[in-house]
Design goal:
It is a single chain. The protein is 30% helix and 25% strand. The protein is α+β, with helices and mostly antiparallel strands. The protein folds into 2 domains: 43 residues, no CATH class; 243 residues, 2-Layer Sandwich (BirA Bifunctional Protein, domain 2), CATH 3.30.930.10. Strands 3-8-9-14-12-11-10 form a 7-stranded mixed sheet. A 3-stranded antiparallel sheet has the order 4-6-5. The chain has a two-stranded antiparallel sheet with strand order 1-2. The two termini are 32 Å apart. 33% of the residues are buried. The chain binds zinc ion.
């Protein structure tokens, strides 16, 4: 077990994730994950969709982040990192829970002051919703900073953070906890889709340069509830979302590793952001699923970094 990992040299080596070590004390969920463990990239946890990433994995991810920073035309020095939890009020104002109630993870805790007599600390029902939820996406941290204001120039942001989505399935690549890098613009109605389209072109080139042949596909979000089917159809018909799809494991027909999204005025209106005298601001985001991109790269280039493109090795 991981809990006893320091007791023997062999276990310590496995937990460090050195290349060539095959196993830990945990059961490996599937062959694809076992292959990544053997390659020294990840370690499992007891929960599907939740992996630990080794120093080898993180070193390449840092180089991938530098490639993304260099691709940003707004000359960002690098992302602003958000915490893994977000103010509940901000996520409520974005109406995330109404569109995706099944994906949102909440935080419950005991009240910090006062301990009712006779409280059974093992009883989870005593815990109350906290004022934070698990961040479902990073760009929801941007709009509250501009809330209730008028902007007169397009705003460009470069943000990153750890996100959580309560995904039902757990095949390798469907992370529940994952890191996301997002480039975001809040601007006028005409500029938002043009900015999004310029990122689509840029990403096709960027992914090609790191050896990934992606297909760009119109997509929809997994809307839930009575209006879900309408929202999904509407999103596809209006060409609001495109995904960059590529295999991330041997038996994979294709997984989205990034998405380019137009939100129209949805978030501008929710957060009362106006663009000059032209009504609600529009917004777009270019989101990169960092672990998924890494899985695609490992699938394409293998375990030996000498075989990888220069920009990442
Ligand atoms: Zn976003």
């Amino acid at each position: 077990m991981i809990g006893t990992m320091t007791e023997t040299t062999a276990e310590t080596t496995a937990v460090r994730g050195q290349e060539g070590t095959a196993a830990t004390g945990r059961d490996l969920p599937d062959e694809a994950t076992a292959r990544l463990v053997a390659g020294g990239w990840v370690l499992p946890t007891a929960v599907p969709g939740l992996l630990c990433h080794t120093a080898k994995f993180e070193a390449v991810l840092a180089r991938l982040q530098a490639v993304l920073t260099a691709a940003d035309p707004s000359a960002s020095p690098g992302p602003v990192w958000y915490p893994p939890v977000a103010p509940r009020a901000d996520i409520d104002r974005a109406q995330y829970a109404e569109a995706f109630p099944h994906l949102l993870g909440s935080v419950h805790a005991l009240e910090p002051d006062g301990e009712p007599a006779g409280l059974d600390l093992s009883d989870d029902s005593a815990r109350r919703p906290a004022d934070v939820v698990l961040a479902p996406a990073v760009c929801y941290g941007v709009y509250p900073l501009l809330a209730d204001s008028v902007i007169t120039e397009p705003v460009f942001c470069d943000v990153a953070g750890t996100c959580y989505r309560h995904e039902a399935t757990s095949e390798l690549g469907r992370y529940r906890s994952f890191r996301m890098r997002e480039f975001v613009t809040v601007c006028g109605e005409t500029a938002a889709p043009l900015w999004r389209d310029s990122w689509i072109t840029r990403c096709e080139k960027l992914f090609g340069e790191v050896g990934l042949t992606v297909s760009v596909e119109p997509a929809s979000d997994p809307f839930f509830g009575p209006g879900g089917r309408f929202m999904k159809t509407s999103q596809i018909q209006q060409n609001l979302k495109f995904e960059f799809v590529v295999p991330v494991r041997a038996d994979d027909a294709g997984t989205a590793i990034a998405s380019a999204n137009c939100h129209k005025e949805h978030l501008g209106e929710r957060f009362a952001i106006r663009f000059a005298d032209r009504g609600w601001a529009h917004s777009s985001c270019m989101a990169f699923g960092l672990e998924r991109i890494m899985l695609a790269l490992i699938h394409a280039h293998g375990d030996t970094l000498a075989d990888w493109p220069d920009a990442l090795a």
